[in-house]
């Protein structure tokens, strides 16, 4: 890949963003990161550098600040593409703080779209746009349902905004990647998921419980119509997700897109219940987990897993890493950050 290709990654020190920065740098892209550090840490820059031997250019500001966004794009007219991750992303929190989610997730996107200096955008979307789908696995043709949470709604609205711009600006090209449930960490354990405060996602809750940081894991709901009564999700290794972003970007750069707005699901194509994830973690790490069953969480759906045929074929990409591998890497990362905190 031509090393002169310069890519902006917003939220590039966040969980999926940082792994994508690594995947991009390993393919020779020049990466620029914007991150306001609201749900990430400056330490992540060091982790990226250790893995790739290269430190991406880094700007710390809030994308809701239109003036700073405009200034940035004025000074970076040579961007080949933008990968937009920066957003608040916890379903439960969004139900409690809807205004924060609408302001943060939509204002930042609008500022980028109105001021950007690139004509290629990859949008970090989510399978939450499907709600509780009528059919499983979920294909890209499944109708988007009324969102179950403000977070899901911001992703639906974000996609609609981008689609509307693509209709009138034929030179503008965008791909929305709808992730299912990214988990795990880079194999080096130099970067991984680092939630601030109480984790909103299952796997960091599992690893923090196993290491003794939390007394017990809460399993929300045992009365779902599934094999063991717990909710089913499609858990995909974060490095598989990161590599899909590189594949999507290459598609736009090489002009391989069929339309100037495209959507792809990113998942493994298989669903695992919460209890299956717990058992896989125990098996792959040798750690015993203490957990208790609680009531369902507002905004949660019964089951979601991806039909990945379109991404497999069009992006020439496939999730390669297993659930056991992902959980083992998450545990290695948890051990690493605990050692760091003990020093």
From TrEMBL:
**Gene name, please?**
galE
- One GO cellular component, as annotated: cytosol
> Which reaction(s) are listed as its catalytic activity?
UDP-alpha-D-glucose = UDP-alpha-D-galactose
PANTHER family noted in UniProt: UDP-GLUCOSE 4-EPIMERASE
Q: Which domain of life is it from?
A: Bacteria
Q: In which pathway does it act?
A: Carbohydrate metabolism; galactose metabolism
Which InterPro entries has this protein been placed in?
NAD(P)-bd_dom, NAD(P)-bd_dom_sf, UDP_G4E
Q: Which cofactor does it need?
A: NAD(+)
A UniProt-annotated Pfam family: GDP_Man_Dehyd
Give the keywords, sorted.
Carbohydrate metabolism, Isomerase, NAD
- Is Lipid biosynthesis set as a keyword in this record? no
- The chain positions of domain NAD(P)-binding read 8-327
Family of the protein in this entry = Belongs to the NAD(P)-dependent epimerase/dehydratase family.
Q: Name one GO biological process term.
A: galactose metabolic process
* Name of this chain's protein: UDP-glucose 4-epimerase
Source species of the chain: Christiangramia sediminis
A GO molecular function term, named singly, is: UDP-glucose 4-epimerase activity
Task: Provide the E.C. number(s) assigned to this enzyme.
Answer: 5.1.3.2
Q: Which CDD domains match?
A: UDP_G4E_1_SDR_e
């Amino acid at each position: 890949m031509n090393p002169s290709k310069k890519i902006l990654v917003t939220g590039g020190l966040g969980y999926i963003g940082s792994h994508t920065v690594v995947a991009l740098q390993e393919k020779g892209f020049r990466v620029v990161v914007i991150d306001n550090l609201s749900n990430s840490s400056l330490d992540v820059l060091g982790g990226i550098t250790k893995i790739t031997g290269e430190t991406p250019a880094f700007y710390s500001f809030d994308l809701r600040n239109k003036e700073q966004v405009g200034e940035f794009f004025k000074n970076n007219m040579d961007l080949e593409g933008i990968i937009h991750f920066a957003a608040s992303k916890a379903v439960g929190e969004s139900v409690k703080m809807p205004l924060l989610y609408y302001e943060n997730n939509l204002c930042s996107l609008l500022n980028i779209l109105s001021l950007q200096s690139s004509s290629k955008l990859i949008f970090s979307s989510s399978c939450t746009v499907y709600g509780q789908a009528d059919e499983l696995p979920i294909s890209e043709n499944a109708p988007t349902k009324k969102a179950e949470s403000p977070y899901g709604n911001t992703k639906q609205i974000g996609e609609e905004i981008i689609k509307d711009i693509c209709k009138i600006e034929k030179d503008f090209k965008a791909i929305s990647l709808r992730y299912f449930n990214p988990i795990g960490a880079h194999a080096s354990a130099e970067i991984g998921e680092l939630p601030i405060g109480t984790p909103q996602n299952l796997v960091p809750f599992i690893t923090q419980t196993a290491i003794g940081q939390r007394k017990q894991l809460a399993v929300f709901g045992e009365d779902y119509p599934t094999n063991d009564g717990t909710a089913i999700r499609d858990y995909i290794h974060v490095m598989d997700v990161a590599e899909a972003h590189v594949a999507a970007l290459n598609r736009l750069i090489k002009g391989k897109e069929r339309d100037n707005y495209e959507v792809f699901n990113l998942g493994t194509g298989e669903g695992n219940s919460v209890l299956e994830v717990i058992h896989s973690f125990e098996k792959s790490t040798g750690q015993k987990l203490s957990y208790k069953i609680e009531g369902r969480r507002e905004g949660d759906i019964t089951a979601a897993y991806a039909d990945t045929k379109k991404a497999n074929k069009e992006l020439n990409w496939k999730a390669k890493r297993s659930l056991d591998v992902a959980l083992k890497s998450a545990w290695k990362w948890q051990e690493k950050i605990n050692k760091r905190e003990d020093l």
